[in-house]
């Protein structure tokens, strides 16, 4: 199956291309405008041009090789369109419409026909029941959703079972100015599922971390194996802990019940999991940009005790450890700050002071510490210890995360300087603690968790092929 | 005890006033500049003027009545200063310095002297070991922290055990453009603790919600009773679930161990609790601005299934309920949207469409529903259902919360219009679900939880007087 034709096409056919702005077949063309390959609008009822390209009646009438068909037609017509695509030698397709495996026996039959055709011809089919995909760095927006073409290029690849969640994640990165390397809504996963998407984007130069949104899949073991095999860090967000039974089943078949099994599977295969879209994106940003943690041990340095207690509490509840520091480290800190407020880990300096950066450096250099979390509310007279951190990151290869806050106008230069040198900055104690806890779990799994699994019972069971994508294409 | 003199002073003495910018006694004067009452800089070693006000050697030499002394001197000098304040008839004081009950026997003796003097004279003493307080609407910044004077006036009153956490919360509201009615860091609570602060701000016209950050207090029952007695909605964030023993004890005495007891106490007294600073502020904003929920039943309407599943899952795990809708409601929705994707609660419309607002209105009108959560990713061609919501909020008196996201420039007008009519908007499914879960818990407790407690064993036990404030004033 040629997944490369799906995600790196040179020529695209839009089947169901339309002049009517409310149609998906119109919005897809709008979103494709920055694409610098060939585009063929396909619609048997249309004539003339749209956006300067000639309508054709069928993909079979296109003379060029078409790599990818974006199929924006109603569900009943889709199986025939996919057969035409196969006959025309199209390598890949995206099917936006809902009304397939998630929608009763008739829909299941439709999906079976699509899968059979695609399998026979080795076609990579994304969807049905998806909003599509976006590769910002290539100016390639294969989604009909408005606005998602504005998401900037970044390092995180989103692979979401739900197109709606994929778009929510994309807009969150847009809001934070981070961007994505790719965004994929898998939908009903006709032939392109988690394993194929993970495999492709593991080799994608622009991708430095892969995040998964998982509701449930019939290929759980392949998902876990592909995640473990990836050289790129992978984080997973498994939803559906509580009984969302009737609702989820209407979208995902037998979603409920396997949640714990999935979590155990991810742990066994060395893939850390999170519990929100924000943790997923924060974790990807930190794992993608910075040095990877070698273990679960967190050194915390705080200039204010209250947020430090919140942070220490939260890290310990979320899989991180606060190790004892080496005697030499404690002595060094006592030398830097005689009479320090609290010299165990977490280190509490009581207030910011000029020596604060030296204390951070002493903790970071301790072999017992795999990840460093610094909490310091901004004080104008001192600023953040930017210069000391700049020399520190040149000598210590460990993730360092800052939690700080203050009047944005006053400290944004210091924050930008820290982020520039690979030190991510978060603006609440919990948000910093959550991302550091994720780093700690990643480090723990890296340390000992990514061995061959020996307990096949941990593998998630089959649970149907239909799923939620957040999109029922109204075409 | 005259807490009014503390929080609404007409004249202030700054003891330890200083020309040296790195001194707290300087920063306090800087932060007081917008205050339109009288200010007296007090320092026996200084002469002349600072910021146009004449230095005096002692509070006893001030001719006017002084309501409030801001005491910015080192700990060893503080007990004598408090005695001078008492002798001079000063009603209230803030003590910034650390080195009291949190700092061993010598510090405990110092705090005992302060408490004795204050109690004898009915002085309201905030601190020691605090960064102070801020009342943005009065231009009154009784904190030495830089930047906190920029926090705008809003409706939420923060009462935090830790000055550091108080400032973190204040900066978060600044970042979100929300602001505060008041911010108080209690510190060691010499004579002003949770009960006094809650009582005062319950009567504060600018305050529409009170949020508490609690580590541990020796007056747990009074805290609970003051919270229950308040007419203003109160939400609590109790920290210290995991063993943060040695660190916490260095700041709060015997913090650990009582966490579950506190949570049970809050529940028994009808005070909902949260697990992060963000939930605390989001909850206060929604409870303070909008109608209060009458029960725990949430109606969810989503235009995308994937985020809807995340929301339904999260609400059910966090104390909310998704009730069955009345038959009449289901019939109405079926009439609005024949062939709707999923017509139970959560309602899933599959995609946004022009009738989406009517579906929301049908759910909101159902008597089974106490709180409404709407999830709809923005689509340019439709916008958000602003007009329909405007007519809805005139007829239905229930909290309505939106989760949406999209390109900020495209939809900020719609978002502003919703917020203008009292519908708060959040930009991730989890954040909206968390605030709605808080509303549901508040509604559940309002429904049946705020009766007289009948089990005194639920009362948190004494656990010391010292605590973390995040500040050890370096004066």
Automatic annotation (TrEMBL), chains A, B:
UniProtKB keywords = ATP-binding, Ligase, Nucleotide-binding, Transferase
Q: Where is the composition biased (Polar residues)?
A: 466-475
Does this UniProt record's set of keywords contain DNA-binding?
no
Catalytic activity reads: acetate + ATP + CoA = acetyl-CoA + ADP + phosphate
Q: What is its EC number?
A: 6.2.1.13
* The keyword Repeat belongs to this UniProt entry's keyword annotation: no
Basic and acidic residues compositional bias, start-end: 449-460
**One GO MF term attached to the UniProt entry:** ATP binding
Q: Which InterPro entries match?
A: Acyl-CoA_Synth/Transferase (IPR051538), CoA-bd (IPR003781), NAD(P)-bd_dom_sf (IPR036291), Succ_CoA_lig_flav_dom (IPR032875), Succinyl-CoA_synth-like (IPR016102)
What is the designated name of this protein? acetate--CoA ligase (ADP-forming)
Protein's organism = Halopenitus persicus
Q: What is the lineage of its organism?
A: Archaea, Methanobacteriati, Methanobacteriota, Stenosarchaea group, Halobacteria
